[in-house]
Amino acid sequence: MYFKSRVEAGQKLAKLISPKYKGTQCTVVGLSDGGVMVGAQIALELGCALTMLLTDTIALPREENPLAGITQDGTVSYNSAYSPGQLEDFMSEYHSYIEQEKLEKIHEMHQLLGKEGLIRRNLLRDHNIILVTDGLIN
Fold this sequence. Notes:
Radius of gyration: 17 Å
Oligomer: single chain
Number of strands: 6
């Protein structure tokens, strides 16, 4: 589905989910800067909190697809486009490189976020979590 803008997308999505979530304890979590723009419209409609989960990708030299994504707290999710055997080979061959990339990515995100940058758990505990992005590549 395509929209004229992220604002329009957020407004239309907000109208779709408002009957189910308006008046409930919920938090909108943007998965990218574009996701925050879409999510802001949803949070406005629902009258709930908006926050962002900062992520980055870990890419290997000469590989077209990213190996993994890493979050601001260091959680790593490996790309399902790769088979378990491929991932095992990459982890063996590029172990030091991958570990260095993880550290650098976390350091960069923490510099952007500052000391209190992680999502506050009280925004998530016992809430409906609405994850928003402006598109997923993989």
